[in-house]
Amino acid sequence: MDRRDFVGMLAGTAAATGLCGVSAFAAEKQKRPNIVFLLVDDLGWGDFSCYGSSFHETPHIDQLAREGMKFTSAYAGAPVCSPSRAAIMTGQTPARLHLTEWIHKGVNPHKKLLPAEYLLHLPKGVPTIASELKKLGYTTGAIGKWHLGPKGYWPEDFGFDYNVAGDEHGHPAPPHGYFGPFYYHNLTGYTENDNLTEVLTNKVDEFLSAAAPKGPFFLYLAEYAVHEPLAERKPRVDKYLKKNGGKDEPDPTYAAVVESVDRCVARLRKKLTELGVADNTIIMLTSDNGGVSFDESKFKNNVLHRVADNGPFRAGKGYVYEGGIRTADRVLAWRYKGGNSERCAGVWAGLYADDCFSGRHSGHAFANRWHGPDAGVSWWIARSRISLLALSALCAAGWDTCGGNPAG
Questions:
Q1: pLDDT in tens, 30-61
Q2: Is the pLDDT of residue 318 over 50?
Q3: Mean pLDDT on 156-176
Q4: If you ran DSSP here, which 8-state letter would residue 360 be given?
Q5: Which DSSP category does 106 fall into?
Q6: In degrees, to the nearest 5, what angle opens at C-alpha 270 toward C-alphas 264 and 276?
Q7: For the purposes of burial, counting CB atoms within 10 Å of the CB of 354, is it exposed (0-12), middle (13-18) or buried (19 or more)?
Q8: Residue 159 and which of 90, 248, 256, 365 are 20 to 30 A apart at CA?
Q9: pTM of the model
Q10: Which DSSP category does 276 fall into?
Q11: How far apart are the C-alpha atoms of 378 and 149, rounded to whole Å?
């Protein structure tokens, strides 16, 4: 198998291995699962209660972690958004894609070294998880931040049937802030009373209502939250301001924005339940990179004000220290209940086919890697370093790897 076409071969290889007749695969045929991949922008490793935050309130995400698998040693493909997101979409390393920097024009004046030359868009024709799942009959939707190129390189050009707010914008900065009016692709208008995270969640409801009756669906929900500049409804900010005694650290506005993501998760799960598809839906939630370790708006004045909580790790977004690439990661997998792992999801935001597979590997070789369902999904991820998103594609193609016990 050509490593450069690894993602493009995922579904076919998984289907081929399903014919091997080995004990790794369930005898009964399962309905293809729906897949929801929720990506938070610039989330810190310790920003959720289930990862140790005593200030942020995230009860619904905590519940997701309790009911599913929580990974504590997950890594992003890059410390900034565009290359990390490119790795998620394609399963290829940012270096292979020649997309190793966040997409923008000009030079960052604060950097001491010039970056290597890089593309300003995702390469045309590259297979994505959406294009491959679409071949399996999935309805594919992208809602929220894209930031992988200008018009002509948007989600609909890479296998998505539905795209709301996915364009060249990389953050909710004015005039594309957290409150309307909005000027995103397929998301314009609204008023100053409309909150971006809430509006995107409304669009999620619309997509799920339309897609669920048709068959399996893949939803890529990429929040603009919790990227700066921060803004939230005043009562929610005031709650945290009161909680920390009027101080600006921990940041009350940031805490309110983190909570907005939690409310989105609650609405998402409620909608899946209402549609009767919750038990056959894989939900994954993570960040594109580490959190901002200082307030960018105050950086020019040399006043460092911590925003995100990157746990015990050094630095944050933009740095290749642990704080910049270590991500909070949890998955509520199809027919998979409970567990924690400190040793799997090696580099979740990229399949890193270079490290895992060579041209001699075939479907039978994949089957030989699996030591039976009792070994658990986390063992397989740890050994092959395949991404959680790719794992979903394998499950969708009929490869039953989701029924084992946690290994860590």
A1: 489 999 999 999 999 999 999 999 999 999 99
A2: yes
A3: 92
A4: T
A5: S
A6: 140
A7: middle
A8: 365
A9: 0.80
A10: T
A11: 34
Does residue 109 have a cis bond before it (omega within 30 degrees)?
Answer: no
Give me 176's structure tokens: 């594309």
Q: Identity (one letter) of the amino acid at 26?
A: A
User: Which two structure tokens, joined as six digits, stand for 159?
Assistant: 């296998």
CA distance 146 to 166: 5
Residues in the chain: 408
DSSP state of 383: H
Strands (E), 93-205: 139-144, 162-164, 182-184, 187-189
The token duo for 283 is 């939900």
The pair of structure tokens assigned to 255 is: 């805490």
User: Residue 388 and residue 282: Cα distance in Å, rounded?
Assistant: 10
Pair of tokens at residue 155: 């989600």
Characterize the bridge pairing of strands 139-144 and 182-184.
Answer: unpaired
Per-residue CA distances from 49 to 42, 45, 288, 329 (Å): 17, 11, 19, 13
Between helix 59-67 and helix 252-274 the angle, nearest 10°, is: 50
Question: Any residues with CB less than 8 A from the CB of 175 and at least 6 apart, and which?
Answer: 181, 183
Tokens 């020019």 correspond to 300
- Find the distance separating the first CA and the last CA of the chain, reported in whole Å: 31
Q: For the chain, which residues make up each domain, given as ranges?
A: 33-352
Q: According to the CATH classification, is domain 33-352 in 3.40.720.10?
A: yes
Residue 209, token pair as written in the block: 């209502």
Backbone angles phi, psi at 255, to 5 degrees: -60, -40
Greater pLDDT, 304 or 358: 304
pLDDT tens for residues 70-117?
Answer: 888 889 999 999 999 999 999 999 999 999 999 987 767 667 788 889
In the structure encoding, which two tokens stand for residue 285, read together? 């939630």
40 strand-pairing partners: 287
Distance of CA 25 to the CA centre of its chain: 27
